[in-house]
Design goal:
disordered N terminus
Amino acid sequence: MQSRLCQDVSCAIAFAIVVLVVLTQRLELRLPVERDRERFVQLFCDREFMVFSAGVLDREAANRRFDQMLIRAEEFPFAKQPVIDRSTGQILGYSGVDRFEFEGRSRLEYGYRLTPEARGRGYSTEAGRAMLAEASKTYRGELLAMIDPENHASQSVAHKLGFSFWKQALVDGYLDNLYRLQLGGSH
């Protein structure tokens, strides 16, 4: 009996540390891990990567933003995570959700951001479809996407992913187009 219990506990522990990896035709998506920190800090400090955002971060702020990715990854299996080119192993950006406050409520924001050389190749749509499929397995409710009104490419991706325009609003002092998507039926 003791042997059987140890086997069950071992299985439970082994199951708990398995990292979900989502593979698409060209991409790998998985929750962020500490070894991703330097690449994301580099990206968050890059002007071209951070276009259509609140701006380039300094190293300290970039590290805090990566820390936030790690924290959110403990909460959601579909949190913002590396989008990795399977042919090169290079992190191209991220796709997934984060929390934010809007209209007095904590909301889930779905977002994506890619390096300039990865844009225009369908990676955001491919990663987004994979992430939203994973999200729909465990989450029922609304996701919002916040997109700069001038970012037409990102608005197109949101539409391809099934998001519908909701309204324009100030979010943290920036005017954004807000898009909504309901997962798992009505809530």
